[in-house]
Design brief:
18 helices, 6-stranded mixed beta sheet, Rossmann fold, alpha/beta
Amino acid sequence: MYLTFGSEIIYDDAEFNIEEKDKVGVVGVNGAGKTTLFKIVLKEERLDGGKVTINNKKIGYLPQEISFQDKEMNVLDYLYSARPIEKLEKELNNIYEKLPNEEEKLQTKLLKRAEQIQNELDSLHQYTAEDELLSLIESMKIDSELLEMKVGELSGGQKSKVAFARLLFSNSDILLLDEPTNHLDMKTKDFVTNYLKNYHGMVLVISHDIDFLNEVISKTMFINKVTHKIKVYKGNYHEFKRLYANEMLEKELRIQAQEREIKKLEEVVRKAEQASATNHKLKKMGQSRKKLLEKKLDELETREEKYKTVTMKVDPLEKSGKIPLEVENLTFHYPNKKDLYKNLSFQMSRGEKFLIVGENGIGKTTLLKLIMGQLKPIQGKVEYGYHASIAYYAQELEILDDDKSILENIDNLNYNDQELRTVLGNFLFSKDDVFKKVKVLSPGEKARVALCKILIQRTNIIILDEPTNHFDPETQAVIGENFKNYTGTIIMVSHNPSFVEQIGVTRMLVLPEGKIMEYSKELLHYYYYLNTELV
């Protein structure tokens, strides 16, 4: 298959084959074409050449960015709508009502359609579907309060959980999962992992969660951004990395051997060209070696370039006071809902790395919005200390304006256009890339823009809501190392234990209890596993 976006080649004569029950991890550097491949399978993107054949299989898709068409629909109705049983039953009843009054020719046509509908209803398990859904709801610990909520009211974590449950209930032949573990608590993630390992159909998953990939997949599809080819390897991500490293080593050894041979041939040709005209033997040898040299140069393999990684400058422009932030007796609830917290108080110290944990929907993101002043408390207050300045990285990237360009989104009075473009270059946006509208970017690219936008502010307090969700492991490591060395104060929500460990979190706030305790890895895992029991 072939695909280009303007002058950028995505796939060039790429081929792959996946078996019906394969569990496949789709990997490659950011921009290689992973999400684009899903769009092609879903017929949302057209190839310039070639085709992808899926043989009339039913496809279920979980995108990175979850949205709902009808935000007023309650969660239970949304889940059940994954199987269009009611719609099909209504159509079937209409057909049976029409049949007696129609001519024979039309009756034959209607009966054929009725047979198709009944076959489809059978495939959707018409009479056991409700029991299957209730079993799934119980297994995923979706409580009655959540089932009654409108989908438009869900938090990031609740959205992921509900969308995943709907996808699993859809009974699809092929599941396409784009960063499926983003926002999931550990217990839900464990359930999903086991469910997918035993899924009856094909699973294709894009994920930066290496542990999840290694658990779920049996094959790895590598989209190579350099060659624009696709290759499927047997084994999980760990096995793929080993096989790929061996391939690259063998390729390097071949290239070195080719380069040695070319160097020898060049030496012979050079000597022949410098020889006297009467040295016919050497001249003749030089001509034959020159032809061979041209052939060897044409056959010489190229090394795969090493991709740039994000570079960051995060030091604050000025120091804050010793107490940059204090929350006093904070009480908050949404209209007609119970309190998320009551009389919550805590104090930050300059330079502290502070982690907020609690089950999905318990109010972690809400607390960050209260700190930012985006929401007003029912009681209590949030106070900033002397010289405090603050920047906020939102998990759903709502700090970005989709209709503006990358350059417009990071516009800052302290930088001129050239300086902004230099900064964007450090975040891997160069040349005309900076004029792209944010709405055309992949979630990973949007995340880089959002991170760039907050870091150029050089504030002394940074609030991070799930900062690693859209980044590959290499970028996560770079971000973690930079935040580890950040001299300001960090308040963070994260489900990524390795990232939390890397940046050096010092204390934890546990919601809904409002307990503050010293950070420990064991406590972090304990509370993640306890999350779904705190209802």
